[in-house]
Specification:
The protein has five helices and seven strands. By secondary structure, it is of the alpha+beta class. Bound molecules: coenzyme A. The site of coenzyme A (COA) has 21 residues, from strand 4, helix 4 and helix 5. It holds the Pfam family Acetyltransf_1. Belongs to the acetyltransferase family. ARD1 subfamily. Keywords: Acyltransferase, Transferase.
């Protein structure tokens, strides 16, 4: 048998006329990604509870959206239901945990930090997380002049590590032992952002 005849329609980059679009292609074409708004927060929080063991208070979510309104995004389906989000903040490298500058001679290095990202299970592998990350990274760079973006990920989270490392180009900066409440190590990952001329 000629092996070429076994090539499935779904995996082809360009679909032949006789081949119906895959479910994923149909789904992804109806998705909309936009900036997150305070009124989205209950839905973002619900998605977070469904997808991740790291959960936060409404105050935490609200603080991020109000403080850095241009770097958190949501993905919504054709009925406007939120199916994914990225929540991020901006930090200054030279500050310690209390927000105090460590070295007054040096300009603080501004950087973005991704606090939480998730996509509902039935909307995964459509490229939504990658798009959410790219939009947030672009805004961190162009609006806040961030020089890099950082995040933490569980050592066992293969899907997220592949998203950050293989799809977006992050590298592992360090391993933080027992970072998570249950004792799991975190990979602290980082991606340099393009320098913006002022
Ligand atoms: C991790 C997560 C956000 C990825 O969302 P997604 O929308 O499915 O990701 P995308 O479709 O944008 O995938 C982009 C790339 O990431 C990688 N990736 C995503 N899911 C993957 C999986 N299950 N296995 C391996 N690689 C995966 C692939 O490189 C993929 O590119 P490809 O589809 O061309 O191969 C999603 O699985 C999720 O919500 N998981 C639970 C919450 C979570 O772990 N959040 C991260 C906390 S640090």
């Amino acid at each position: 048998m000629n092996a070429v005849t076994n090539v499935g329609c779904v995996t082809r980059p360009i679909l032949p006329r006789s081949c119906p679009p895959s479910r994923n292609l149909r789904k992804s074409s109806k998705m909309n990604i936009r900036l997150a708004k305070p009124e989205d927060l209950p839905h973002i929080q619900a998605a977070n509870l469904q997808n991740l063991p790291e959960n936060y208070s409404m105050k935490f979510w609200m603080y991020h959206i109000l403080s850095w309104p241009q770097i958190s995004f949501v993905a919504e389906d054709n009925k406007g239901r939120i199916v994914g989000y990225v929540l991020a903040r901006v930090d200054a490298e030279e500050e310690d945990d209390t927000g105090t500058r460590k070295d007054f001679d040096k300009e603080p290095e501004i950087h973005g930090h991704v606090n939480s990202i998730s996509v509902l299970r039935s909307y995964r592998r459509l490229g939504l997380a990658r798009k959410l990350m790219l939009l947030s990274q672009e805004a961190m760079s162009t609006i806040y002049k961030s020089s890099f973006v950082s995040l933490h990920v569980r050592k066992s989270n293969k899907a997220a590590i592949s998203l950050y490392r293989d799809s977006l180009g992050f590298r592992v900066d360090k391993v933080e032992h027992k970072y998570y409440g249950d004792g799991e190590d975190a990979l602290s990952m980082r991606l340099d952002l393009p320098k913006q001329s002022i």
